[in-house]
Design goal:
Blueprint (H helix, E strand, L loop, with lengths): L1 H18 L6 E5 L7 E2 L7 E3 L17 E3 L18 E3 L5 E20 L9 E6 L4 E7 L8 E21 L9 E9 L8 H21 L1
Antiparallel strand pairs: 1-9, 2-10, 3-6, 4-5, 5-10, 6-9, 6-10, 7-8, 7-9
Length: 218
């Protein structure tokens, strides 16, 4: 009986290891605004300064925290905007900014608009993903872009998620470089697939063995 239980327990453990999803994030540049998806509100509380405070002409206040902006014609917009005509989160020229996306609904992918990134001399832009405790670069802008450039980005995780984190890195002084993030939406995860009859039978058998072992011990 012990042998059977050990075999089933090992099989279940092996299956759980094999079924454990790998951390991944694949970025696709879309030709335009994505169709469908469920919009998610962006707040400055989703963004955490990791690097230095900003200090360029687009900065409002001390430049030590991301800020909501709504007017692309304002002197502090500097080419940043929301392509949907609403609001954007301005990086305030912070050179390393962590963005955490949380949702009560599980999702497999998300999309957002990135504006005015990597448009300064000697600049760069790298997007990294927190794949279980380590920042892994997943996308960058290879060359300097024009002011007010726009990217529609889609990130696919290949599994259901409720929270993900990104790190955006760009240059620090002299000549700060900033960007805007807006129009976040998620692709809800499909409904869970019911456990197949074979899986139910295996689970029931395991529970029966456990009960028999307890009864034998008592």
């Amino acid at each position: 009986m012990v042998t059977v239980f050990s075999f089933i327990g090992s099989a279940l453990l092996s299956a759980s290891i094999l079924a454990a999803p790998a951390w991944s994030a694949t970025v696709t540049v879309l030709p335009g605004a994505p169709a469908g998806g469920s919009p998610i509100d962006l707040t400055v509380g989703d963004f955490e300064r990791i690097g230095n405070c900003g200090g360029g002409g687009s900065v409002v206040g001390d430049g030590c925290a991301a800020l909501v902006k709504t007017d692309p014609a304002a002197p502090d917009a500097f080419g940043r905007f929301d392509p949907l005509g609403d609001y954007w989160i301005d990086s305030q020229d912070i050179n390393e900014l962590k963005w955490t996306v949380r949702s009560p609904t599980a999702f497999t992918a998300l999309s957002f608009a990135l504006t005015d990134a990597h448009d300064q001399l000697d600049s760069f832009f790298t997007m990294s993903f927190d794949g279980g405790g380590n920042w892994t670069p997943i996308w960058d802008i290879a060359a300097r872009r024009d002011n007010a450039n726009l990217y529609w980005l889609s990130v696919d995780f290949g599994q259901a998620m409720t929270e993900v984190a990104f790190l955006f890195s760009t240059k620090v002084r002299p000549g700060f470089d900033g960007y805007g993030i807006s129009a976040l939406s998620i692709t809800p995860a499909p409904a869970p697939v019911p456990l197949p009859p074979a899986g139910l039978l295996l689970a029931s058998g395991t529970l029966l063995i456990v009960r028999l072992r307890k009864r034998k011990s008592s």
